[in-house]
Amino acid sequence: MRPFADDFDVYVVKRPRDMPDGITTREMARNYGDVLAEIGPANVLGLSMGGLIAQYLGIDHAEHVQNLVIAIAGPRLSERGREIVSDWLAAGRDGDWANVYVGSIETTYSAGTKRAAYGALLKIPGIIKEPPYPNDFITSAQACLDHDATGELDTIEPETLVIGGSEDRLFDAEDLQAMGTTIPNARTHLIENTGHGAFEERRREFCSTVASFL
């Protein structure tokens, strides 16, 4: 969020720890809505799973949102995305965190230096450890699988930017384009030839597009 700090007061709100089993992205959005109620109306940028939660902020808590950025997230996972996240969920339940981490790198980064560097890092003995709150990963993965805001996108009131990678394996580019036409005051910007890691691999284009929108 550093690129935006010169022009905005930036608050980074992370997901709470030790989440209850079965919590949904809509319920998570309710918690963030409470935070926004304290901060005051704000521009909201939701990234990846945060983009799923941001959709329900726009649907249920629009009074707290000035402008909305749904980044690297569609209204639901693609079919391939469901397969990938289901594999991560199964691996997490089995405690196979190596498979989770390697799979997330392969899904996030296109073939190149970052993918190679992170892949090499994970091969270092002892580098892969169980996350501090393993059930939070399992709960989050299930919430992503259950998320589908397709039928309510037209109720999002704030002006909205949908931004993502054209080759994202988790979310279809066609769904991102459809969001830009279904949400009443929205537009879509696809970052070409990149996937779920577009925010990092094409940081300049991502940040400049978001900054221009805000």
Could you characterize what this model shows?
A four-stranded parallel β-sheet has the order 1-2-3-4, with helices on both faces. β1 (42-47), α2 and β2 (65-71) form a beta-alpha-beta unit. It has helices spanning 25-39, 49-60, 79-93, 97-108, 113-122, 134-146, 173-182, 198-201, 203-213, and strands spanning 42-47, 65-71, 159-165, 186-191. It has two domains: 2-76 and 150-213, Alpha/Beta hydrolase fold, catalytic domain (Rossmann fold, 3-Layer(aba) Sandwich), CATH 3.40.50; 79-140, no CATH class. The mean pLDDT is 90. With 214 residues, it is α/β, with parallel strands linked by helices. It is globular, with a radius of gyration of 17 Å. It is built from nine helices and four strands; from the N terminus they run αβαβααααβαβαα.
Concise overview:
This protein is α/β, with parallel strands linked by helices.
Give the overall form: globular
Structural class: alpha/beta
Low-confidence stretches: none
What percent of residues are in strands? 5-15%
In CATH, the architecture of the largest domain is: 3-Layer(aba) Sandwich
Biggest pleated-sheet summary: 4 strands, parallel
Q: In the residues, how many domains can be counted? A: 2
Count of DSSP-assigned helices = 9
Radius of gyration: 17 Å
Looking at the structure, the CATH topology of the largest domain is: Rossmann fold
The CATH homologous superfamily name of the largest domain equals Alpha/Beta hydrolase fold, catalytic domain
List the helices and strands and how they pair.
Elements: H1 25-39, E1 42-47, H2 49-60, E2 65-71, H3 79-93, H4 97-108, H5 113-122, H6 134-146, E3 159-165, H7 173-182, E4 186-191, H8 198-201, H9 203-213
